[in-house]
Every structure is written in C-alpha cells, then in structure tokens.
Amino acid sequence: MIPVIAIFDIGKTNKKFFLFNEDYKIVEEVSVNFAEIEDEDGFACEDIRALRRWVLDTLNKYIDSNTYDIRAINFSSYGASFVHLDERDVPVTPLYNYLKPYPAKTEEQFYATYGTKEDVAIATASPALGNLNSGLQLYSLKYDKTKLFDKTLTSLHFPQYLSYLISGEKYSDITSIGCHTALWDYRKHGYHDWVVKEGIDKKLAPVFSSAKAIDIIYNGKALKCGIGLHDSSAAFIPYIQNVNEPFLLISTGTWCISMNAFNDTPLTKQELEKDCLCYMTYEGNTVKSSRLFAGYAHEQIIKKLSEYFVEVPNYFEKIAYDKSLLKDEPALNDLNDFDVANYVSYEAAYINFIRQVIIAQKRSTDLVYNDKVKKIFVDGGFAKNETYMQLLAEAYPRTEVFAASVSQATAMGAAMALHKDWNHLSLPDNVISTRKY
Length: 437
Hints:
alpha/beta, Nucleotidyltransferase, domain 5, seven-stranded mixed β-sheet, kinase activity, FGGY_N, FGGY family carbohydrate kinase, kinase
C-alpha cells in the first residue's frame, strides 16, 4: 500500500480532496461544488451540512482503500468564516458569508467603544473590512443575534471546524486568527483588548500549533491530524520550505497579493490606507502583505477588448510582448479607467493596459518590498502572462524575477506543514517550477 497524506482543500467554489505520496505527487484528486443556500436573512452562504456529509463520505471511502495507507490528514480553506457550535457540538447558525454587508449600527457601536477604525486596524494589521474582519462577526452575533450568541459554546474558524469533524478536537490556529480578523494584536502578540472585554475569547478554542499534528483514531485507524490552515498561509508554505534566501511572492488571481515574510516593520496608517495587511505563517511569523485588485480589472478589460476589437475568446493569450507598442503615458489612479478606444489595435491596447497594471503592481509591491529581498516569485494567472512578467522584471532590474508554479499550492502547503509527522523522506526541493525573466 502507498503511504499518503490526505488533504481537504475547501474553496468558496471548488471543494477538493487530494492524496499526496511521500514525494508530494498527487496520486488521487476529487473535486466537487455545491449550490449555495441562504441564511436567515436571505443572503447566500455555504451549505455546511452538504459539505460535512461530503467530507466524511470521501474520507470513509479512502480510509478503507486497499491501495493507499493514509497516515495523516490536514485541511485548508478560505478564512473570515466561523462555525458556531452549541454544547452538543451542533452548528447554531449558518456559515455566514464574509461578503454579507456588516450592520452599520453595530459597526458604529464597535468603533465608538474601542477606538477609530484606524486605531484598531493598526493594532490588528487588519484593514477595516466589515465581515471580512471575522472577529467582528462574533461581535455582531453578540449584539444582533444575542440568543444565538448565548447558545454558542465554541466558535471555530472554518479550517479548524473541518479538522474537528475528523478529530473531534477543537483548536484555534494562528494562521486563521492572524489574517485580517481584527482579533489579534500584533503589538502584544495576543488577543486585542476588545476580544477579552467582550468575552469573545471564552468562545474561542485554545491555540494549537499549525506545524504539529495530533494523534487520533478514525474508524479504527491511527492518524496524524492537522488542525487546518488559512488558505493564503498554506499556499506560502512550499516557498518557505524550498527557497533558501529572502524572497517576495506575488500571488496573482482576482487579487494580486504581494507577500514578504522578511519585512517585520509594523504597519503604518499610510500602508493600511493603501490596502496593506499582515498574514501569519504556520510557524507564527508575520508576513507583511499588500493587495491589488488587478486580476478583476484584467477580466473587465478582456471583455472590453473583445467587444471593441475582435470577438475571439482569450485572444490576449496569443499576444507576444512587443516593446515597440508601448506608449509613455501617465499612470492611472484606477485600472478600470483604461480606455481601449485610445488604441489602434487589440495588441497595442492590451500591452499598454498591462503596462498600467505593472505601474500599479510596483506601487503596491513597493509597500512591502525591502532590500533583503533577493528574488521575486509570481504565481497564479499573471505568471503565465509574457507581457506582465517581462515588464515586472524591467521594473525590478536589481532583483531576480521568476514566474513560478506549484501544483495545487494550497493543498501542497497543508501537506508539507505536517511533513515531519508522517513522512520519513526529506522534503523535495523540486515542488516549484520556475522560469527566470
């Protein structure tokens, strides 16, 4: 039988299950998605019951396999979400959607009591983001849905709830606590004062290391079980484990997030106003980060280019980098203000739009960049974009710039976090595919 680690990687759309062998090759992969349901206010949310059934059914199927010897299990999922359990460990609320608007009166009350948005944001390294500050979800539950709050014995971050389903153990994890929750005071390395004054800390499970496993028996089989990781922190782990000198990672998708684990300067008011925040590594170290909504702007410009020039799906993928098409134009304050009508061709418009993306990207990345950084890695959609990568390399001439790819980085990171608990081989040094620009 093949020794493996099982990973559940739960995104908002796709729910995935993987088995990794000892060389961190994927030997099994399952992917599903579920229709959203509505919470009591009619807002779309995760179907936690359907997800719970799928997690248990999937693990039960593979735990009895004659092909694989599952030795460990871990979990990653999106953050900013809590599951509130009663004394019988039954969820007392839906899994509220972090995109749901935060109650204005409750927000006003919170900041009137505990300081300005700026004060709380600087202390917790969390820009004021409403329900994306998941700690404020607990505050809202206390004052807006008091009966449900009183019924809640333990509130688990979503990754830790997934772990609890298998282990029966309730823990909190620093990667979930430390990521834009408004719970963690980065200055004193503990919960913010408001968390204690409101009694929220009594609803939270004890903190356990994300770099360790707990011993459990599941269906008669001994397993090493992780307590789960916030997905952004999990995806950072393959780079931490494989890169031997200070680096910066630009993770690109809808958001382009610049992550620097080698910058320990406190966030300033100006940085917070420009959408900086901090993540936490699974070892408890700070990752100073900045965000740019460039992937979304890219999606919108592709639609405009197709409408204006040529109706060919993803035509931009065929465009080679051509420096002669670049215009020396002033930087846009908003990428959505880019006007395709100012250009004679799809190619010219697209390349000049990417130039504007790079201007904005450098502005964003420079907020967390420092002289320690020797390499910049780009993963996600823009890593496959020749024009983006060439212009980024030109923007950072003294730093090595690489397009990088890690297959299923979030799941891979969750597996690697438990390496010493289940795998007797050395960590592989080839999980990152790179191309230098």
